[in-house]
From TrEMBL, chain A:
InterPro entries given in the database record: Intradiol_dOase_C, Intradiol_dOase_core, Intradiol_RC_Dioxygenase, Protocat_dOase_a
Classification via NCBIfam families: protocat_alph (TIGR02423)
Lineage: Bacteria, Bacillati, Actinomycetota, Actinomycetes, Micrococcales
Recorded family membership: Belongs to the intradiol ring-cleavage dioxygenase family.
Domain Intradiol ring-cleavage dioxygenases: 13-106
Provenance organism: Arsenicicoccus piscis
Gene designation per UniProt: pcaG
Domain of life of the source: Bacteria
Chain segments annotated as transmembrane: none
Key words of the record: Dioxygenase, Oxidoreductase
Name of protein: Protocatechuate 3,4-dioxygenase subunit alpha
Pfam families: Dioxygenase_C
Amino acid sequence: MTKLVATPGQTIGPFYGFALPFERGEQLVPVGSPGSVRLHGTVYDGNGDPIPDCLLEIWQAAADGTVPDAHGSLIRDGYTFTGFGRTAVDNVGGFSFTTVEPGPRPDGGARFISVVVFARGLLNKLHTRVYLPEDVADADAVAADALLSSLPENERGTLIATREDDGALRWDLRLQGEGETVFLTYPER
Amino acid sequence: MVDETFDDARVITSSDSAQSTQAEINEQMAGITRDYEAAGAEETQPRIDYAPYRSSILRHPTKAPRPVDPESIELWSPAFGQRDVHTLESDLTIQHKGEPLGERIILRGKIVDGDGRPVAGQLLEIWQANSAGRYVHKRDQHPAPLDPNFTGVGRAITGADGSYEFTTIKPGPYPWKNHFNAWRPAHIHFSLFGTQFTQRMITQMYFPGDPLFALDPIYQAIVDPAARQRLVATYDHDITSHEWATGYSFDLVLTGTHRTPFETDTTAGQSPEGAH
Ligand SMILES: [Fe+2]
């Protein structure tokens, strides 16, 4: 089949704040609800300075491993898990999602949350993944994951969250330079 | 909507970042164009490392993105519907008591994936400046008037054939601080979802014949002229409505999908029970 050429992307620019964020966008589940986990971090530029104008979205499986198909992300009812979250970072580049850990994958692979990044100064979207640290704690698990096993250790680390003492997942995003996050492209066949 | 109430300070901040002249930016852009033409390999997306757009310098990854086959959740997309978006949200001219100022336009188009399949039942969001080139955003300090009858945010769920339609006002061009006397061509920001999260995209739609195209490093960051042209809407007199509004068409193509689509993808944007 003849492939059509995709429309080019463009930067989100600085003025998305009145348009894209929505109420409780960062709460895939209510804060403090049973099984909830915090996924948080900071977005940095090539100077190591936090970026204050960046929008992050996450998309993930439900706690039972199924792919959510419920409507209601934009108007949250506090009960329906839609698997989608969106947040603008704060003035010091910080973000904080409240979600659940995705359940087991049907193929038994390491679990991850899919992330897409938009920012002023960033001319196109960036895709990446956040893996749960417990899933990729040993060499066999890393070897079984096509992406992680293809990366040198220092780059691999940019895709794996850190478990904090209170159970939260910490994951920072570096757009450029030292510790630059691994971003992904999905070639078409 | 989050707290983005407008702080109505008529402050023009000094443009200390605006050190380059337009001529210097133009020269830099022309050099990149020459190199692109000499290289002879077609590019269809913007460069992310494009120094004439000053803010990109410290915000672009230096490593090439890692090619990977999409897995599990990446093969699906969040589902949106009328629960998320009211049908009236596609008319940006009826959100306040009065009619907004400016040139009323109807914007119509279709979203398909790389195989030409319609992207049905998916979320499309737009945002834009008003007819004077001013955003309802607290960080926009361009001393042009706000319009009490215009916010500049619209949403729609695409139809079964991937179609959408917005009624809005033609936005004005506006100044920015990339370089001295820098102006953005008039544009509308588009945010859209496909049937896979890998297709997620944000872009900008422009109007035909804008004299600012050649001067704008964001538009020119798409170095290929044919690719840039894909972001320019077409004036369409068949969309123009008698004694009411001028019409433009703008179609979008997402990247291809990696899984075999299900029949239900084109009816409700949903995956069948148990398919995942
Ligand atoms: Fe804009």
